[in-house]
Structures are given as C-alpha cells and as structure tokens.
Amino acid sequence: MSRMSIKREWVHGWLLLLPAMVFLFAFTHIPAVTTLINSFFSTPRGRRSAEFIGLENYQEMLTDDVFWKVLWNNLWYAIGTIPLSIALAIAMALWVNDKLAGRSFVRMAYFTPTVLPLIAVANIWMFFYTPSFGLFDQITGFLFGWPASNYLGNPETALNAIIVVTVWKEAGFFMIFYLAALQAIPVSLKEAAQIEGAGRWTVFWRITFPLLMPTTLFVGVNAVINSFRLVDHIFILTDGGPDNASALLLFYIYEVAFRFWETAYAATLTVALLVLLSLLAIGQFFFFDRKVHYK
Amino acid sequence: MTSLSLKNVSKSYGAVEVLRDIDLEIEEGELIVFVGPSGCGKSTLLRMIAGLETITSGDLEIDGAVVNDYPPAQRGIAMVFQSYALYPHMTVYDNMAFALKLAGKPKDEIERAVRDAAATLQLDHLLDRLPKALSGGQRQRVAIGRAIVRDPKVFLFDEPLSNLDAALRVATRIEIAQLKESMPGSTMIYVTHDQVEAMTLASRIVVLHGGNVEQFGPPLELYERPANTFVAQFIGSPAMNLIDATVASAGQVTTVTMADGGHADAPIGSSESDIGSAIKLGVRPEDLSVTDSDDYLVKATVEIVEALGETTVVYFKSQNGRDPMIAKLPGIHKIERGSELRLIASPEKLHLFDESGRSFLYR
Ligand SMILES: Nc1ncnc2c1ncn2[C@@H]1O[C@H](COP(=O)(O)OP(=O)(O)OP(=O)(O)O)[C@@H](O)[C@H]1O
Ligand SMILES: [Mg+2]
C-alpha cells in the first residue's frame, strides 16, 4: 500500500469519527474539564473575576456540615434503595416468569412505574403522602385509627418516604433485566437440580441466583449511579427539607449552583461526586468479578 | 425382578392425547431403548418416569411402589439430559457432588464417590474446570458421572449423544455400553431416534409411534419378526420393501402372488379365510438377490445404482405410485440403468402383513 492511500484512510477514519467526537467533547469532556478547573477558582462576583485559590474550595467542602449531611443521607438512600429494589425486582421477575394466568398484564403493571417520568411519579406519591387526605393516612386511619401524619414534613421520615418512592419506581425497571436473564437460563438446569433433590429454595439460591450474577452486577452498578443521579422527585416531594433531612448530594449541588449561585463551590462538589461514583463503579466491578460467571 | 412398570399410562396436554395406554414391564438390569419418529412422545414418556411431567392416568411403579405422586428426587432415578444441563457456575467436581451435598452426605464419602466416578469416566484431570472449558464429549461424560455418583435404581437418558459429532457418537456409544456392563444391576432407559444406537445398546427396544407402543422386544426380534408394517419399515436401513400381493393358498405355508407374475411361498401360517385377500409382502433390501429363472418374487426396472464397493444399492422405478423398491446386493455388480431385474429372496426372510398392517405372525 502506498503512503498516499494510508494517509487517505487515516483522514477517512477521523472524518467518520468527527461528528460523534464533536458532540462528545462539546457536551461531556469540555464541561467536565471546565468543572475541574473551576473547582480551583473562586466564584466570580460582580466585577470581581474568578481567582485561582488552589484547594480552598475543597477545604471549605470538608468543613461544610451540609455536605457531610447530604453525603450521609445519600449513603442511607443508597443502602435503603439498592438492595430493596434489587430484591423486589428479582422476586417480581421470578413471579411473572412462572406460568400464571394474565402474566403479561402483571408484567405490564410492574413495568408501568418505569415509563412514568419521575416528576409524575412524585406527584402521584405526593397524593399518597398528603396528611389526613392522602392514601396512606386514609388507610391507616381507617384500619388502625392512627392520627394524621406528615411523612414528608417530618425529618425522621422524610428520607424514608423518598426511598419508598424510588424503590417503587426502580424495581419494575430492574425486573425487566432479571426477566430477560431468567428466560435465558435453560429449564433443564432447574429440572436437573430437581431430580437431584433440590427444593424450590435450593434451586433459587444454588442455581438461579448465581446465574443471575451478571445481571445483578449490571443492575447494581446502575442502581448505585441512579442513587446519586435521580433527584427529580425531591424537588416535588420535600425540596430537600425539612432541614436538609432529605437532601441528596446532587440536589445539594443544584442548590449551591442555581439557588446560591456559588458556582465554583458547586464545581468542587461535582468533582467530589464524580470521584465517588468512579470509585464505586470500579470497586463494584472488582468485587463482583470474582463472583460473576459469564456463560 | 421387575424394576419399573408402567400400567395403562396415558398423557394428555389439554385435549391432545400424546401417549395412550402404555404398558411396559422392565426388569432389573435391562437397558431399554425408546425409539420412534420425532414427536411420538419418547421424551414425554421418559420425563413422566422422571417425575418432570405429571401422569394423566395409569400407574408408574418403581421397585414395586407406585410413584405417580413422588417428587423426582424420591424416585431413585437419575437423568442425563440431551443438553447435558451442567450447572455452568460450578466446577466439574461440584457438578458431580451437588446431589450428594444436598443429601447431606459426609465430605469424605462425597469425595470418594466423585473420584471413583471421575476415574471410571476419565475425568480425573478435569475436576477443577468449569463446564464451559470442556468439549462436548467431556460435558456428556460429566453429565453421566453426575448420574453415576448418586447410584440410582434407574438411569434415564434423553438422546444423550445427539449433540456429538459422528465419530464421538460412536465412541461414546461404546463407552455407554461398557458402562452398562460394569453396572449389571442398574436399569437404564435410553431415548434415541438413531436406530443404530437402539440396535447396539438395547436389551429390549420399545418402538413408539403416535403415542402407542408398536412393539416391545429384543433388537433382533424387532428386525426379524416385526409386528407391523410400521416397525418393519422403522427398524433397518434402507427400510423394508412392502409389495402388494394376494394370498393364493393358505396353510402352514402361505403362497402369495404379485400382479407382475411373481410369486412366493412364505413359511408363515394363514387360514382359509385369507385366500384372495390383498396383503403386503415384506422383504428387506439386504435379503433380495438377482435371478435369471422364471421363478422370481418380483421384477422391476432399475432407476439408480449406487456402487459402494462393499455393497451395491439398487433403486427401482416405483410402480403405481408406491414407494420405490430397493435392493442391497453384497459386493460389486454390473447393472445397467433401465434394465429389468428379477428378484428373489429365501422364503424364511419373507414377512406378511394384512390390510391393517399387522403381521401374520402376531395374529
Ligand atoms: N407442553 C406441551 N404442551 C402440548 N403438547 C406438548 C407439550 N410437550 C410436548 N407436546 C407434544 O407431545 C408430543 C410428544 O413430544 P415429545 O417431546 O415427547 O416427542 P419426542 O418423541 O421426544 O420427539 P423428538 O424425537 O423430536 O425429541 C409432541 O407432539 C409434542 O408436540
Ligand atoms: Mg425428545
């Protein structure tokens, strides 16, 4: 091959890559790098332009009580939503994978929360949680005679109330992945185990669950990312309150950036979030790698 | 001693009856082969014995106890699946030890059982591998090993060789035969639609067709004395020729005549009432030979000649739209296409079937 044609191919290749690269750089890489740079500068105010201040923003972050509070909240939120939504997703998938009458209806019913926008979901749950008139108060009041309670307005329960909404929203989505994975497991494996003396429970723990591991890894990584990413419903339900009881990291970043206009500090928090997410994702892959069997 | 018996066993899926009144008595130590065309219910029957399908009606007894309602694990059976069904996330060792672990056997006993089975099947060096790192034949052996360690009363095999290539099939078939020999007390039921497997492995063969047992007997009995035209044509390859004939005289020896002037005296009993009835004369391709005399069985026009060296297979033109006749002549013959040949067969190789397809021998 001549020099000329090698060069032609090279140009061709880059031209083909160009459109995607332009968008990727414009909307992902450049903002990310800018964010990192901004986190080392002060927030420009009025005529005072941004100054390089080194790690000052990071020092501020470490001493910021609200930052630690929302981080802690986020941890609880993750612990509260991830295992529960995964367990529910598996249970629902097992259930709709069985032969049962009207199973496509049940599948659809379980999947519905997923197709609803989170804001719409939040509005539905707003009604469920409304003190006195809401669905929950109506039910608990009717059945047990409990007094009206303000689940969203109480610092003790606000975060848990949000966790419930998130689990409700996410479990149906994860179910779809588990359903697909379950259908890929040959029935003969279950039959072989049955013949060898395994009951339903043993079949699940010793055969089905280990074979679902690749799906669990995938869903787990997604769930972790979602637990830091999905905050839309907080705006509707609690607006982070009361007293930051239900604020999560990303919600706090939004507040700092677009309510307090401390853009540099928001950039710092964003960098912290990115580092945290990368560490979690990497850690998860290494942790699961030894336990996951790809066929 | 009877090891397994089916009494009037039937199976329906909704309104569709796939097996009808199956009666089988299987002795301890037998290797029974279920054969039949695709969709005849072989797998269904095997899975009913295993307990993976419910029995719609009738009784299944294993070692004298009716086990219709026993879960699979309590029937004392082990099954080898066509797809092997090895647990992909467990090593070969764990695959083979799974049942014993579930049964709560002590560790050293499990270890011994697995190592013994592995030695028999030459799997020693593979015990730490995952199934995905095994060849098809090795997977098959692990599946068999998994059955052996449990020391079951009855082994069930569902087309265990159908995923292997031709050479490996033969090798594994021989291994299974040797395995059976080393375990004379165990009963095996083996499903296949390969009649070579059936003929070579079986102590007795069950021929299934359309949900019925067409015949149940030793391989050579099925070959030499087929009960009906279905078995006659299913066992043996190429299939038995069936020729339209008319009964000319009855008695200890039945004389039949063919439309083209051929005739035969078959040493098969018939009664006066048969005289004049239209029947089928059966003769296997390998039992036919060419003759010059006027005393022939049939004559037919050669259409295709396949010279294979050890044999010459001659395909004749089909007459009045029937299946073309085939003759399998030993050795090399010079036969012209389009020539007319006269064929004969020795009388004891002839079979007679009435209009309903039933053999005269079983009336
Ligand atoms: N779950 C089911 N519902 C309805 N009909 C079924 C079901 N399973 C099997 N059948 C029918 O039962 C008949 C017997 O099936 P079976 O699998 O036993 O055939 P087979 O003899 O093993 O065939 P093959 O040689 O192709 O494996 C078939 O006609 C099949 O369509
Ligand atoms: Mg089958």
From TrEMBL, chain A:
Principal location: membrane
Record bears the keyword NAD: no
Q: Where in the cell is it found?
A: Cell membrane
Q: Which UniProt keywords apply?
A: Cell membrane, Membrane, Transmembrane, Transmembrane helix, Transport
UniProt key word Transmembrane: yes
Topology in the lipid bilayer is annotated as: Multi-pass membrane protein
Which PROSITE patterns does its entry note?
A: ABC_TM1
UniProt superkingdom: Bacteria
Q: What SUPFAM superfamilies is this protein classified in?
A: MetI-like
TM spans (from-to): 75-96, 108-128, 158-182, 203-225, 264-288
Q: Which residues form the ABC transmembrane type-1 domain?
A: 71-282
State the family it belongs to: Belongs to the binding-protein-dependent transport system permease family.
| PANTHER family xref list | ABC TRANSPORTER PERMEASE PROTEIN, INNER MEMBRANE ABC TRANSPORTER PERMEASE PROTEIN YCJO
Q: What name has this protein been given in UniProt? A: Carbohydrate ABC transporter membrane protein 1, CUT1 family
From TrEMBL, chain B:
Q: Matching Gene3D superfamilies, A to Z?
A: 2.40.50.100, Nucleic acid-binding proteins (2.40.50.140), P-loop containing nucleotide triphosphate hydrolases (3.40.50.300)
The molecular function GO annotations come to: ATP binding
Looking up Pfam families in the UniProt record yields:
ABC_tran (PF00005), TOBE_2 (PF08402)
Where would one find coiled-coil regions in this protein?
A: none
| SMART domains per UniProt | AAA
Q: ABC transporter domain spans which residues?
A: 4-235
Report the superkingdom from the record. Answer: Bacteria
Its keywords, alphabetically, are: ATP-binding, Nucleotide-binding, Transport
Instruction: Please state which protein family the record places this protein in.
Output: Belongs to the ABC transporter superfamily.
Protein name as annotated: Maltose ABC transporter ATP-binding protein /trehalose ABC transporter ATP-binding protein /sucrose ABC transporter ATP-binding protein
